[in-house]
Amino acid sequence: MSEAVEHIKSSDPQAPVTRKGYLMSIKSGEPIDIKDCDVHGRCRAVTDFEKLNRIGEGTYGIVYRARDSRTNSIVALKKVRMDQEKDGLPISGLREIMILKACNHENIVNLIDVVVGKSLESIFLVMEYCEQDLASLLDNMVQPFSESEVKCIILQVLHGLEYMHSRYIIHRDLKVSNLLMTDKGCVKIADFGLARLYGEPSTTMTPQVVTLWYRSPELLLGSPIQTTAVDMWAVGCILGELLSHKPLLPGNTELGQLDLITDLLGTPSENIWPEFLKMPALENFTLKQQPYNNLKPKFQYLTAAGLRLLNFLFMYDPKKRATAEECLQSSYFKEPPLPCDPKLMPTFPQHRNLAQTKQTTGQQTNIELPTISAILGSILKKRRVE
Ligand SMILES: Nc1ncnc2c1ncn2[C@@H]1O[C@H](COP(=O)(O)OP(=O)(O)O)[C@@H](O)[C@H]1O
Ligand SMILES: [Mg+2]
Predict the structure, then answer these.
(1) Is the CB–ligand 1 distance for residue 55 below 6 Å?
(2) Which residues bind ATP (predicted)?
(3) Among 13, 37, 63, 253, who pairs with 56 as Cys (CB 3.0-4.6 Å)?
(4) 132-344 belongs to which homologous superfamily?
């Protein structure tokens, strides 16, 4: 046994677990060794999975496409990022595991298992594999989604959200890169690293969540109370993005984001949002004055029902904002063009795997210049990641 382990054993049970870890005896309070054969407990080991390629890396983890050698099936393996942790699993990883385990719905990504690496420091979520995420799909697709395809995607997101919200789960980071799609056209909400449970009465949460572009006005204005309405605002942004084929409110800073929202929807007031003037951030600045709602000129080809839905999702007052259940009743989904059947959604090349294969095999003999759309796509993608 190494000196370091000896040291930890004898002196400081609170010290970071950097090797295989140890257990504390309930009887004596003394640390006890974990036998090699018990290191993984009842968890499967990640070595059971053959990593095929990296498909994503975001704020909280790296994601691989992998083959389960027991079942031969393809799965997604998400490594829980531990680097800043001193003593155990980061809260974001724990939350994600707990919440995904509690969810069982076809529009929420399925957590198959949690497996461990060599040391207790590496923990992986094994999830069903989805061929696409909407961000890389939007960046790479030649022809934008038709309106009936957009309706099909949004309806599935709403079904997933209705399920989550009825279980008091708020996602808090809905955006196109966290929406996955299978080759069968099934859309799945993923990345529950920021998700939280909320109860009545509402608890205080840190407002610095949700990527800027999809962030609701109450979060931007520093409201300590977050409800399921923050997810519904993000749905409005995603619907707008899918319909106009570009991000709807791509702000660079929080103030810039508020400016973009005000330009699109007009300045909020106490009349339409009674709590507006109590928002903490208004102590530091005032919003610019812009009296018009510009949704109609922005979405000229959208029907009255479509505009009603967008306006309902973009209610400034979170209490008045549409719920997932209400959106599902919207006449927008019942009028032509009708939402297409998920099974009829087109299939797309798997860009994430193609890019990786080229890189890893190094067999790219023809040096091809990237197309303009690819360059624009990668700039957009970069900004999305930021
Ligand atoms: N189950 C999955 N199937 C396919 N790709 C996935 C899956 N889960 C995640 N990904 C890919 O990995 C990326 C990052 O995963 P995500 O769960 O969003 O983690 P992060 O917290 O790092 O953003 C996603 O945008 C997506 O491209
Ligand atoms: Mg993500």
Answers:
(1) yes
(2) 78
(3) 63
(4) Transferase(Phosphotransferase) domain 1 (1.10.510.10)
